Amino acid sequence: MEKITPRSLIDFGDLAYSEANEIFDLAEKIKKSPADYSSVCRGKIMATLFYEPSTRTQLSFQSAMMRLGGTVIGFSDPNNSSVAKGESLRDTVKIIAGYSDITVIRSPLEGVAYAASLYSKVPIINAGDGSHLHPTQTLTDLMTIRELKGTFTGLKIGLCGDLLNGRTVHSLLRALCGIGKNKYYLISTDELKIPEYIRQTLIESGSEVYELNTIEECISELDILYMTRIQRERFKSYEQYEKQAGIYILDSAKLNAAKSDLIILHPLPKVDEIEYTVDDDSRAKYFLQAENGMYVRMALVSKLLEYDKQPIKCEYPLPSERFCANPRCVTNHERYLPEKIVVKNSVRCCAYCEHTI
Ligand code: NCD
Question: Which atom of ligand 1 is nearest to the CA of 229?
């Protein structure tokens, strides 16, 4: 994606590998002695704009900012903001940038954080845009993998569940492709397979990729098993969701065949895909992972706030016609957004949501 000013995090790839490592190093230091960082963001304000439900991401960002000595404003129910009166994303973002030093945004619309970054004079952090990306969950996942496995390469990684709609999976796979050579076991039903653009990235990175229908086929091989929830809110109807729900359940019986140093990750919330007895298995690391999310967000926020505020240019010509066919793309909801196209692997894509044009 094109470089954004001021420094925002829309995709994990916005960070150079060395910068990501600096963030992990800092997150580890903060985790060891949080008190040393308790005034790093004194006097700074974070705005959290959540147009979609969230527990961990929103609260860990808020807690991160408060532990750094900063304060937080924002909303978690857009019905309590002017969005309910029909205000555009552009206006909301411009106004909030005047009130805060950094903005965290989550929405069901794909490309929303990128769109917001075009109009914000403060850094924007993507806290999840529809089924597209979730880079701070990726930082959380990678910090946990680094802590427990000490490497991002040479691993056998299973990812199970809603690989089609799960933005955490998309972000994580894309990030891992750039930093390691691993074997990936993509476990899903045929209906919920990984999107083609992510599969292509895996193949082009030289990774070995296996697409499977059951956990049993690969569990004995795995170093990491990344479980995910079937994303009910992304289905067109409840009936369609029901057909996919409850197919993958990780239980103690399945884990009998797994390695003793397997680590089980999950971005959470979990619904029924992990049996409660598994929580007590020493290989279950998802609660540690959720806690790491706060430390890595502390590190990220303190790094992004090192960059100065800069004026932005956002005088773009209005688009003549709609260019993205993805109904969930932010451009089809915020109609003033300029046409932005990127070419990836010789294919023209929407720069907001990455769907093929
Ligand atoms: C995930 C998300 O919102 O994409 N949760 C999170 O941020 N920790 C995963 C999910 O909702 O299933």
Answer: 12
The residue among 229 and 3 whose pLDDT is bigger is 229
Q: Is the pLDDT confidence value at 280 over 80?
A: yes
Residue 273, CA distances (Å) to 35, 253, 266 in order = 37, 14, 10
Range of weakest confidence among 171-180, 192-201, 204-213, 316-325: 316-325
Least confident range from 141-155, 161-175, 299-313: namely 299-313
Ligand 1 surroundings by CB, under 6 angstroms: 56-57, 128, 134, 137, 167-168, 229, 231, 267-268
Measured CA to CA, the distance from residue 178 to residue 198 in angstroms comes to 12
What ligand 1 atom has the least distance to the C-alpha of 167?
4
**Angle CA(101)–CA(107)–CA(108) in degrees, nearest 5?**
165
CATH of 135-289, one of 3.90.25.10, 3.40.50.720, 3.40.50.1370, 3.40.50.170: 3.40.50.1370
What ligand 1 atom has the least distance to the C-alpha of 166? 4
Measured in Å, residue 127 CA sits from the centre of ligand 1 at: 9
CB-CB contact of 155 with 183 (8 Å): yes
Mutate to test the pocket of ligand 1, among 63, 133, 134 (most ligand atoms within 8 A of CB): 134
Strand partners for 133: 129
**What pLDDT is attached to residue 309?**
55
Place domain 2-134+293-318 in its CATH homologous superfamily. Aspartate/ornithine carbamoyltransferase (3.40.50.1370)
**270 CB neighbour count, 10 Å cutoff:** 18
Does the pTM exceed 0.85? Answer: yes
